[in-house]
């Protein structure tokens, strides 16, 4: 079957294109540009790449046109597909139709930690012989690509995105993923361009939980009050998890982890099940949030897929994580430079705490670009100062969406002022181009820099490494 994808260079759409090729389909795709890494990857997989958005890309009359949610209703290529009577479908609809009809969906959902937890679960299942399929909304460091077919009938692990499916299909993507085992990490109001309030956002997760069958499994984080409330609606068994230090309200988690020290770059924690000590675990992924992510994935692998606990825990030290999640870009001038996708205040706080635990010595310097639809607005204005408190120095770039009205736009200067009042060093930069210079002005050997954005941060990553590198004389 000839399948054409409009918006093929998106992380999810590109991974889907690779899956379709692996399944033997003739695949083409269009987009505005084909930058690395996705552009070269698509060509390597045998996907024909066509410049978009051009109705001429459809002259071959494909059997199916997959319309990515990057497309708006006036996208000329998508409009032409409908006008010509070509069969059109959304990304999740295609995934459901071609890959999930006879396979249980292992869906990782929540506001935070989805990508990392999805990659962890896929690695645990793969390393222990389950031969899963998977599709991850990021680039996992433990595999050579973000998606694979796996064995027929085996679990299919999917990052459960609550964003809408397509302009003509206004429903959350994860409703179409045949959820049998679901991990729910957290629920905090996000994607304000789709969900105007918490009630509408919550409803997306209610719909997901309602789709889990009675013989399925919900693995739920007990430290989140929204998750606790949602889990009560499940008709399937629920396994709550948390760290021993988390406030779990009226819930007693069946599985808990007690953080120990960081040893040789590994986060140690003691695993308890039903109140009994099970094992000391060593995870290469730093921070309390990643300990929770590992714990959730272990439960899904053991209780969901039926894998033995011992071998699953033996796999944990080999976990590789995901690119752009606490990814070490390099060490320049004795300064460790990391990149992270964090943009929501909770994610910013947990990322900084995680790096602080990994590097207890030296100063922590956070550079941040508020770029997402949520981060660019004032809805979390009051939470950001506290989120940056684990950092010794904060360098904050301008809002990445200047088209947002000033009275709705995040006030970066106010955040900087509050951090200074709290005794932290903080500054706002006039643009992203000046971030590298400002970071280098603060950094000294032994310090740690983390660059946080859900976009490209104006391409500052190499600039920061260069600015920190001593000039040879």
Biggest beta sheet attributes: 10 strands, mixed
Number of H- or I-type helical stretches? 14
Compute the number of structural domains: 3
User: Fraction of residues in helices?
Assistant: 25-40%
Distance between the termini: 61 Å
> Would you identify the regions where 5 or more consecutive residues have pLDDT less than 50?
none
Reading side by side through the largest sheet, how are the strands ordered?
8-7-9-6-12-13-14-15-16-17
Shape: globular
In the CATH hierarchy, what is the architecture of the largest domain at level 2?
A: 3-Layer(aba) Sandwich
Beta strand %: 15-25%
Task: Give the mean pLDDT.
Answer: 89
Structural class: alpha/beta
Question: What is the highest CATH level, the class of the largest domain?
Answer: Alpha Beta
Describe the protein.
With 473 residues, the protein is of the alpha/beta class. The protein has three domains: 90 residues, Rossmann fold; 219 residues, Mur-like, catalytic domain (UDP-N-acetylmuramoyl-L-alanine:D-glutamate ligase); 142 residues, Protein-Tyrosine Phosphatase, Chain A (Alpha-Beta Complex). Helices cover 29% and strands 25% of the residues. The chain is built from 14 helices and 23 strands. The strands form four sheets. The chain has a ten-stranded mixed beta sheet with strand order 8-7-9-6-12-13-14-15-16-17, sandwiched between helices. It has a six-stranded mixed beta sheet with strand order 18-19-23-20-21-22, sandwiched between helices. Helix 13 packs parallel to helix 14. The longest helix has 17 residues. It is globular and about 65 Å long. The mean pLDDT is 89.
């Amino acid at each position: 079957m000839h399948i054409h994808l409009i918006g093929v260079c998106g992380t999810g759409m590109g991974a889907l294109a690779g899956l379709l090729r692996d399944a033997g389909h003739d695949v083409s795709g269009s987009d505005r540009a084909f930058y690395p890494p996705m552009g070269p990857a698509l060509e390597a997989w045998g996907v024909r790449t066509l410049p978009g958005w051009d109705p001429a890309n459809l002259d071959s009359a494909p059997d199916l046109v997959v319309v990515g949610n990057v497309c708006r209703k006036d996208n000329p290529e998508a409009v032409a597909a409908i006008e010509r009577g070509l069969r059109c479908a959304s990304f999740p609809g295609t995934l459901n139709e071609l890959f999930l009809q006879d396979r249980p969906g292992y869906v990782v959902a929540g506001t935070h930690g989805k990508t990392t937890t999805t990659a962890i679960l896929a690695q645990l299942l793969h390393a222990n012989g389950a031969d899963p399929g998977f599709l991850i909304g990021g680039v996992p460091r433990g595999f050579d690509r973000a998606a694979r077919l796996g064995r027929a009938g085996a679990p299919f692990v999917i990052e459960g995105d609550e964003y809408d499916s397509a302009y003509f299909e206004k429903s959350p993507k994860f409703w179409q993923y045949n959820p049998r085992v679901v991990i729910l990490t957290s629920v905090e109001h996000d994607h304000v361009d789709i969900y105007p309030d918490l009630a509408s956002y919550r409803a997306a997760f209610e719909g997901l939980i309602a789709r889990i069958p009675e013989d399925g499994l919900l693995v739920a984080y007990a430290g989140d009050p929204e998750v606790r409330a949602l889990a009560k609606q499940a008709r399937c068994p629920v396994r709550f998890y948390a760290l021993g230090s988390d406030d779990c309200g009226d819930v007693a988690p069946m599985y808990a982890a007690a953080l120990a020290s960081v040893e040789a770059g590994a986060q140690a924690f003691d695993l308890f099940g039903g109140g009994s000590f099970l094992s000391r675990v060593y995870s290469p992924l730093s921070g309390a949030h990643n300990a929770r992510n590992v714990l959730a994935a272990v439960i899904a692998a053991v209780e969901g897929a039926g894998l033995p606990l011992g071998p699953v825990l033996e796999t944990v030290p080999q976990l590789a994580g995901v690119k752009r999640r606490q990814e070490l870009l390099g060490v320049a001038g004795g300064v460790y430079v990391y990149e992270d996708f964090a943009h929501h205040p909770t994610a910013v706080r947990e990322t900084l705490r995680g790096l602080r635990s990994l590097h207890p010595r030296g100063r922590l310097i956070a550079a941040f670009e508020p770029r997402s639809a949520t981060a660019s607005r004032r809805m979390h204005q009051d939470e950001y100062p506290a989120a940056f408190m684990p950092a010794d120095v904060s360098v904050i770039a301008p809002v990445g969406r200047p088209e947002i009205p000033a009275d709705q736009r995040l006030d970066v200067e106010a955040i900087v002022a509050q951090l200074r009042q709290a005794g932290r060093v903080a500054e706002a930069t006039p643009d992203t181009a000046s971030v590298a210079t400002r970071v280098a002005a603060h950094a000294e050997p032994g310090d740690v820099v983390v660059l946080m954005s859900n976009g490209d941060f104006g391409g500052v990553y190499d600039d920061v490494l260069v600015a920190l590198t001593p000039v040879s004389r």
